[in-house]
Structure formats: C-alpha cells, structure tokens
Amino acid sequence: MRGKGIHTNDPHIQALARIVGDEKSILYKKEDLLAYDCDGFTVHRHLPKAVVFPKNTEEVAAIVKYCHEHNLPFLARGAGTGLSGGAIPLNGEVIISLVRMKRLVSVDLENRRAVVEPGFVNLKLTNSISDRGYYYAPDPSSQYCCTIGGNVAENAGGAHCLKYGVTTNHILGLEVVLPNGEIVEIGENGIPDPPGYDLLGLLTGSEGTLGIVTKITVRILKNPEAKQTVLAYFDRVADASQAVSDIISAGMVPAALEMMDQTAIEAVEAAAFPVGHPKDIEALLLIEVDGISSGIAEQIEAILHICRQRNVREVKVAQNEQERARWWANRKTGFGAMGAISPDYLVQDGVIPRSKLPEVLQQIQQISQKYGLRIANIFHAGDGNLHPLVLFDAEKPGETEKALAAGSECLQACAAVGGSITGEHGVGIEKKEEMRFIFNDEEIIAQTNIRDVFNPKNLLNAGKLFPTPGRCVEVKKG
Amino acid sequence: MIVTELVAELKAILPETQVETEKQALHPLGNSGKVAVYPQSEEEVSKILQYANTNGKKIAIIGGGTKRGFGGLVECADILLSLANYSGIVEHAVADMVVTVKSGTPFQQLQDYLAEYNQKVALDPAWPQYATVGGVIAANESGPKRLGYGSARDSVIGLRTVYPDGTVIRSGGKVVKNVAGYDMNKLFIGSMGTLGILSEVTIKLRPLPKYESLVLLSFQEGNIEKIRSFAVQFLDSMMEPVCLELLNPSLSERLVGRRAYTLAIGFEDVESAVHYQEEFVKRIQPSDTAITILAQQEAQSFWSSFYTICPNGAAAHYDESANIEAAVKIGVVNLDVMKVIRESELLQDVCHVNIEAHGGLGHGLCQVYIRGAAESVIAAIERLQAMAAQLRGYAIVKHLPFALRRNINVWGEKPSYFFLLEGIKTKIDPNRILNDQRFVGGDLT
Fold first, then answer.
1. Where is the FAD-binding PCMH-type domain (chain A) (predicted)?
2. Which residues in chain B come in under a pLDDT of 70?
3. Which of A157, A407, A441, B417 could cross-link A161 (Cys pair, CB 3.0–4.6 Å)?
C-alpha cells in the first residue's frame, strides 16, 4: 500500500510516509530536498534520501527502528543553524527533522526547571518565562531561531557562558531515542546525579551521533537583579587583551567579556546594526557585569579603572536598556555582518588559554598575510574562545580551499598553545581531521568505542566528528 | 596464587618499598586488597594496570580512604592501589585560572595552595583534609555550595585517565570551553574508579569571594509549610545564595546550637552585596524564627565543622558491639528536599536511630547520616529508599560497613538504560579488573 499522496515506488519512502501519517510530513522529491543539502556550514553539500517530520517521540522511535532494521543511514536536524556541518546528509541520510516537535511541555518555576521538545526555539524559552523574571542561560548568537535539541547535540555556548556555563551545565534530563529505536529516559524529573555513568554529560555535545533527543529538561535561572554593560575602545589589541586578563585576575566573573578586532568592527559598522564604533581602533571590548545591584557599581568602577590603566581611548557604560540592546545586537549579528564586506566568510571556533591571546592573535595575523585573505576576529575573550572569520570569495577559483586551509591553520595555532579546535560550534564535518591536532589515535578510538556502545551499526550521523581512520599523520603525544 | 608470589611479581615492576602485604586485608568497610601498592608516577600506575589486566588480577583503588564504605561487594581484591603517594600540583596557570593536579593530592592541600593566589576550586566536599582530588571527582562529591557553583562536572575541564590496559587517555583539555569530540570527562566523573584510574585532573578555578557570610534561620515550630513558603519567596527573589541548605533539628542542634529546622543561607560576593542580601532575608524573615549571621571567619569555621559531619571511612574504628554509621544520598525534585529532611527527622523515633540530615532546596540533593544498631540502621535506609521512590527520586548508600552492604542494594534499582552502563564498562574494562562490583547494579563492574 502506498502512503497517502505519495508518488514514488521507493518502498522505504512509502513506509516512512506511513509512519508519519501523510504526504505533508515527508519530503522526497529532489526539488524539495535541496533545502536540506547543508546546514550553516555550506562548503559541503549532499542530498538526503528523504526528510521526515515526526510529531512525537513514538514517531521518531518508529522511524529510527525502520531505518535500523533496513540499514538506512539517518540523522536528526533542528533549525539547521549548525556551523560545522553536523546535519549535512553525507551518506544520503533520511533526515529526521524535529521542527514540528516544538512544544514547551511544562514550566516549574519553583523548582527552576522546564521541559521542552527538541524543536523548541532557544529564545522562546526565555520569552515564555521572562514575565515572571526567569530565563534560560545558554544564548548562542542564533538563539532567535536555533532549537534547544540542536543546542544539546552541539553543547552550544554563547556570549554569557563565561559566568553561566554552556548547554551541558543546564541540562537536567533527556528523553532519547537510541539508534535502534529504543526510548530511554535519563535524569528523570530533572533530578541531578542519577546513579550510574553520566550519560547526560556524554550525550550533550555528541553531535547527534549517540541518539536523538526527544524531550529535554533544562534548568532555568532567575534574572539577575541588575546588569551593566561597558564598551571600551583600544588603540592597541595588546592593551585590550591585557585588560581582559586584568579583569579576570582581579577576581571578577563578568557575565560576558567580548572582543572584536578592527576588521570585525569595519564589518559590523557596515551591516544592519551599526553603533558608531570608531574605525581606527584595533579592538573593542564589550563587558557585562550582572548580579546584586549594590555590588555592581564597585565592579564597574574597577573595570573602568583597569581599562584606563591599559590605555583605553574611550570607555563608556550603557546608559539604558536600549543602548545596551544596540551594543549587543551589533555584536550578536557579527558573523552575518561579514557579508557586508566580503562575498563569503568561514567562521572558526578555536579556544586558547586566555593568557595566550596576544600571541595567538598575532599568529592569526600572520596566517592572514600568508594566504592573502583578511581574517576578522570576533570572540568570547573571557573564556578564550576565538572566532576567526576568514573572508573570501568562493567565485574566485581556489579561494575556498585557501580559506579552509587558513581556518585550519588558525586551529593549529590554538592547539599548539594547549587549546582546543572548537569551543562551541562542534567538530561536524568541518574539523574532523583537525581532531588530530589535539587527540592521538588511542584517544580517538576511546571515543569511537563509546559510540559503538550506543550506535553499533553507525547508521546515525556517520562520518562526523572523528577523523578518517588510518590516515597517517604525526600524532601529538600528551 | 599465594600472596608472597603476588608481592614478588609486583616488586618486579615497582620499587620494592612501594609494594607491601596489606595489613588490613579484611577491613570492616571492605574494598581492600591482599597486596598494597603505592605508585608514584603515572607510568607506575600504568605498569600495575597492565600487569593486572594481563594476569587477571583485580584492583581496588584508594585515595584518602574517606569513601571506603561507598559501594563495593568485594571485601578484598588482589591489589589495593593507593594514590596516597601520587600527589602534587602539576601546573597552575594563574592568569588562566586553571590548575592541573595529581589525583592523590588531598583536597584541602590544593585549596590552601590556591588561596595564596585568591583562587579556589569551587567544590565543597566532605573531609577535605583527607579526601583526595581524585576521590572527590571519581565519587562526584559535592556539598551545599553546589547551588552557587555547580558540581564536579561543571569544574573539571580535563583529565588524564589510565585505562585498564595501561593506556593513558586524555580527555578535555586546559581551556574552559571545549566541545571537541565526546565530553569524555563526564564519563569518568562519578564513575567510582570503574573505568580507569584518574591520573591528573585539570580544574577551572574561581576567585575567592571578596566577602562571605552565612545566615542561619531557624524555624522554631518545625512547621514545614512555613519553611516552604519562605523558601519559595526567597528563591523567587533575585538574591544569589551560594547555598540554601535545610538542616534537620538534630544537625542544627550540633552545629547551630538550636534544636530546630534551620536554613543555612550562604552569600559570597563583594561586601555590600552580601550585606544587602542579609538585609533582604531579615526583611522577609517569618515570625517565630531565630536568625544568626556568621561573617567571614565565623562562616568559614562553621563550614569546617560542617564538612566533618558525615562518616569518614578513613577514621572510623569498629568494634562488634558498637553502633554503626551509614550515609545516604537522596536525590529528589528541589523542594521535595523538605519532605526528605522532615521524614529523616521523624525516622529517628520510628527506627530508634540518630539521624543528622541536610539537603539543598535549590539543587535537590540530601545527605542523611544514620547512627544506631545495625538492624535499625538498615530499617531506616529501607524506609528512605521507599520514600525516595515515592518522590520519584533515588537514594544511594554512600557509607555502610561491608558486611551490611551485601544485604542491601546500595545503588537502588538498576535504571532502564542499565545496558548502556554495562556496555560502556565492558568496552573499557572487559576483564573487569578495576573496582569490580563497586558501582550501580553491583554486578556492573
């Protein structure tokens, strides 16, 4: 029997259509599939076999079970904002889109938790509880459209994770469909430390290779009583870096501590949310302090003092919420702003020990010169998470490859000072070979061994996260 | 194989002075070994594991011994591997606020060292003078300040772990934000030494607070509803307590000198912000409650005593006739902590035991310490387990003499996803040489 309204002889498509119920819940024609051939990482593209839109956990489980039994590769997808290619169907996967599972299931303010479906949009959670003075802390720049399910898969971060932590620090429970279709619940009722190995911690950030999350219990926080935001312009990037270090060393934990360099400033000022930053400064810092109101003034004073000691050209405190919001909109749309000064850009995501900031920024400058490509830097300076944006023109032959190589070299520079190749965007396809910058063969096998426990047939999101085995590369021993 | 042969074989791979026949092979808390070894380097740990893995020997791991009564159905393994002589700071990146330390380092020693730099590890485990960093991490120990600072999983950013085959596996790194590959740190934190031996632990640090205080608010009538409405109002405010811990009257009597349910509300911030929050508590202070505020050193010395209230596996002495001690960790939905603490108080009369209990209204974890005759203690544990199940939470026994652990399921019921836990164990330690039968399910591992 064919699924209702399904015009194909492919028995798998028909079977999947029967599971999700109707033709509106499955895409299988080439023209419909094109929109799903990549995510926020656009360098690689591949068509999926089909895209299905389950409405509930049982449908997800049935789809997974079917794929598992018929050896069809499959993967889960949220809003498709991932920046490392984690949702690209490299193997012609059946894409299980979770965008229709977008309910806010429950909110329990007294116990500071909420339950959401994976397709629920990050910012909507905060918007749903802000009238009562609560919010959900992880705030990736794409929070207005990215889903919490995707945030769990990638262990998403954001500007405010310096003080409040990344996604994994806010996940209390998960309902998961395992790659064989079995449904398990980990961290029931959101109670911490469930006896046994920390599977919540393992699943969060596993980039959709261990299971498909179908329900998420998150921690919610009370809004801080007060917050103040400082904008500081520096003539020299070294002074800005040193100011970052001084603020942290002074025993402060700002809610956010962001930096942009000159090229980045040029872009954000040319884009949709300019705030009038001077174009001839080398770096700006955006610093936010929050907490008990009576303690804020003291901290702001200390920050202003540090900036002045580090030769700041101009430093100001946001006078009202509108001004603060403008500064943040300018920062949060920073990646997209590159479009205003370059046809294409590639964003990288290295992490370094904070103290190595001046050294690594200089190396990135050298990489930029070597490849003849401009590199803008927008980053979470407080936690050493750099986002070098390599500007290029894909129309020019060979330039995409050059941009990829320059990006990879930036990561190598991060790894060389004891850092990491990704702080919040994930490995995906993009950085899987770069995994060798920080892990040796045995350490990679230790990880794939864990994958084999959950995903023994490797049908779920195969070809991501780990380098191609057996490639002969010099291995950095710890 | 007789013990002398085992000693001889181990002496072939370690300096002789680091191998000895274990004098307390039959320790009342179990988790012992016939031969004790004291590695002083990661290489030595690796060699011992390789030897055991190839020769089918079982290893029990010990640090300071404070958690010796925590899980474990083996009284005496072949080898007792002590990390007591594997301690010290490997690297302290002061400006980056990151420290790497050998796992056998006593927790307090690390904190004292860091205090000179106005930094700290944001964990507050029991018995910090004795407990080692490795033990705290392997057992996922946390205290009341978990509310403000999170638990081990929020602080640990990197590990070097020696696998059962002797391979050293690095996970995480030295940076505070890292999503490269699976978050393998999480796997080892709280794994009770059943997957590998932690060699080096890298932890992100916090600044020492500029000022701290502890508000002790005692509810004279023991009216749980009154505590609840206060807690709900307080939690709904924008105050930022680092702990909101409810003490049962027995514990409050010992620590506060008042036999009443007492809330311990901690503040750590700049001084003005701390005082502002103290004032807020006074403003909403319910009638018929007593309040004491401990500032700075007073608060610190309260906490020093607080961290010694749970049974210490390293210090306990046993004689057959005496009362026994047990510790139970109960996880429930945050505000249900009140029910657990009240039930614990009432159990004293029902079961003829002494119980000291505390739990965090902001994080849902309770610790219940029971002292009494063996059968009474077991009866109390069973009632606590039943109550936790009713509240859809869990209760695990963190301390109990070995003989009694065999009569009670210290980890509670196996979770529905037990096969995943078992699968992970089997992948990493197929010969089950490390802390065999120490963890969930008992047979896991």
1. 44-223
2. 1, 221-222, 316-321, 441-445
3. A157
